[in-house]
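lol so apparently i was supposed to do this last week
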Amino acid sequence: MTDYRFDQVFDRRPTSSTKWNKFPEGVLPFWVADMDMRAPPFLLDRLKQRIDHGILGYTVTPPTVVEAFIRWLEVHYRWSVQPEWLVWIPGVVTGLNLATRTALAGESLHQSRRSACRGIVIPRPVYYPFLDVAENSGGESHLSDLVRSGQQWIMDFDDLDRCAKDSCLFMLCNPQNPTGRVYTRVELQQIAELCLRHNLILMSDEIHCPLILDRELQHVPVATLSREIEARTITLFSPTKAYNTPGLSCAVAVIPDPVLRQDFLHARAGLVPGISPLAYLACELAWSDRSDWLPAMLDYLRGNEQRVRTVAGARMTPVEGTYLAWIDVRDLNLADAETHFVNHGLGLSLGEQFGRPGFIRFNFGCPRPTLQAGLERLAAALSSPDGVFRPT
Ligand SMILES: Cc1ncc(COP(=O)(O)O)c(C=O)c1O
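anyway here it is w/ pyridoxal-5'-phosphate bound
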């Protein structure tokens, strides 16, 4: 395999990086979900060529990006989608919020329950923008806690059934941020059945799907389970996590049902900016990629995950997908977790942000020298008074 020199450390502070400019200098950031490695050389070269053209005007959606995406879905997931099912948006978070507005206000599936239905089913802990969508759209979050079962975080389907009453939307994150779960076909089937039973629209954020670390597992787009579930699903994709181009905002919503799609387009109308030509190009190149860059990156991330697990031990479950470790620090009884970790030189995401205090999320998408320094700090920060962690 090509040596992509993922160990190389770059100074990101001069680039106004969200990740590197939040905490004081000297604190190593392992929070927001972007990686500290360069995007693939083939992608950077093509972006440079595009810049050399010199004109960066408004752009329509290039047919080549549509073709690349459709082929990618077909090749990786055996999902045949039609070009007209796609709605382009400048980010998955935009998609989460548009999906919510679509479900709450839309004419589709829910016409008979429109005025009554405000509920949004959200398993948590979850990527924090999920927890804001209800407030943004006048809905009501019906939250259900994931449960740790051995080495995995799983859904509590009895509780989800309770949450689904008086709801119109289920918000799935798969692979799951922050727990790193990659849901099995059986689990997805249960979610699909719940949505069908309660007549819910299913929003599925699958942005992390190229980042499967567990070699035994495969990502399954929930919409591929059946035509019935496909027809009530809004699936959100973007290659920006896997190819580390999240600053080049671009995502796509796959909405097979024409009425649901119309409602989504209506929610988007006039509010959501277009996508930049560079962002479209980066997506097209990522979805067309046949090189060994992503396999090499996945191997590197697997190595990083093992190193994190060596330090965090039973506090974390193995990361099946994503580059995010969800670490239990409840036993430390930290009154101010942020200060505790910053005092140890670590900038982390705190559990409360995801709806689960007492945990931290550690982003291990970084070169090994940075990781090594961070893990030494983490080991010190995790040393509880008696030096022994007991999962509760
Ligand atoms: C699950 C998930 N969805 C969406 C996003 C953000 O996507 P975007 O930058 O396209 O809005 C992230 C970024 O961390 C994420 O982890």
